[in-house]
């Protein structure tokens, strides 16, 4: 199974200090930063776009921006996000009818490609062909659109289904994830953990990052005994 990666969601950070917030997370042990891009169409809210990501990538050298594109036309933003320094471009299966050419376009711009499914979308929409082409699969554990929502436990079954089908793929969970439910996520087989409120809302974000990471590491030891 692929290794544990913690990706704090900056949606829960102080946007006025975004570069400092990202640096603080990296110092605290975060490997990726989860950048929630919302367009007011695919989801009702608007957050940030390429101009802001571009400032962050200039301000935080070496940052890995895990861009979660909650946008209606994901084809439209590949070049802008690549130019802004995005490292991973994750689009929603619900937002496109043609995922394979989109994955190719993302790879052409030297970004990793992710495919996301919302709570009501079955894991079966991710066909073997799509999973083989993609670098990461994202199972949403809340309805996309805002931070601080309650974790939907029923979505975890989809993580188990995908992990059984794709033992080597990065599988990310996003939404309401924190120390209380990390074991559930980790045992089901997710290895890329997004958390906004649980990390930024904590007294000690580095402790939460360490807890999340060790839960994934421990679950993997149980799944793959040596
Ligand atoms: C929801 C976003 C999530 C969210 C996670 O639409 O995709 O990334 O910010 O935040 P928490 O961990 O607070 O649910
Ligand atoms: Zn997200």
Averaging pLDDT over every residue, what do you get?
Answer: 97
Order of helices and strands: EHEHEHEHEHEHEHEHH
Work out the count of structural domains.
1
Strand content: 15-25%
* General form: globular
Q: Give the helix tally.
A: 9
Number of strands: 8
Oligomeric state of shown chains? single chain
Largest sheet: 8 strands, parallel
CATH class: Alpha Beta
How far is the N terminus from the C terminus?
13 Å
Tell me the structural class: alpha/beta
- CATH superfamily heading: Aldolase class I
EC number: 5.1.3.1
Binding site for a divalent metal cation: 34, 36, 68, 174
Pathway: Carbohydrate degradation; pentose phosphate pathway; D-xylulose 5-phosphate from D-ribulose 5-phosphate (non-oxidative stage): step 1/1
Family: Belongs to the ribulose-phosphate 3-epimerase family.
Secondary structure elements and pairings:
Elements: E1 5-8, H1 18-27, E2 33-38, H2 50-59, E3 65-70, H3 78-83, E4 88-92, H4 99-108, E5 112-117, H5 128-133, E6 136-140, H6 156-165, E7 170-174, H7 182-188, E8 192-195, H8 197-200, H9 205-223
Bound molecules: D-xylitol-5-phosphate and zinc ion (ZN).
Residues 9, 11-12, 34, 36, 68, 142, 144-149, 174-177, 194-198 line the site of D-xylitol-5-phosphate.
């Amino acid at each position: 199974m692929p290794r544990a990666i913690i990706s704090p969601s900056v949606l829960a950070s102080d946007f006025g200090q975004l570069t400092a917030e990202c640096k603080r997370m990296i110092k605290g042990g975060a490997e990726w930063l989860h950048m929630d891009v919302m367009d007011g169409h695919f989801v009702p809210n608007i957050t940030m776009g390429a101009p802001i990501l571009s400032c962050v990538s200039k301000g935080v050298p070496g940052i890995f921006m895990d861009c979660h594109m909650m946008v209606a036309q994901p084809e439209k933003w590949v070049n802008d996000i690549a130019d802004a320094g995005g490292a991973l471009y994750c689009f929603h299966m619900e937002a496109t009818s043609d995922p394979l050419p989109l994955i190719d376009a993302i790879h052409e711009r030297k970004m990793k490609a992710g495919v996301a499914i919302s709570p009501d979308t079955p894991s079966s929409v991710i066909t073997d062909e799509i999973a083989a082409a993609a670098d990461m699969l994202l199972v949403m554990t809340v309805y996309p659109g805002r931070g601080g929502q309650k974790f939907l436990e029923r979505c975890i079954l989809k993580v188990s289904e995908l992990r059984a089908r794709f033992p080597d793929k990065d599988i990310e969970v996003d939404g309401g994830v924190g120390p209380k439910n990390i074991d559930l996520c980790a045992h089901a087989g997710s290895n890329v953990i997004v958390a906004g409120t649980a990390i930024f809302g904590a007294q000690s974000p580095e402790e939460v990052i360490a807890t999340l990471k060790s839960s994934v590491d421990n679950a993997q030891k149980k799944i793959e005994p040596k």
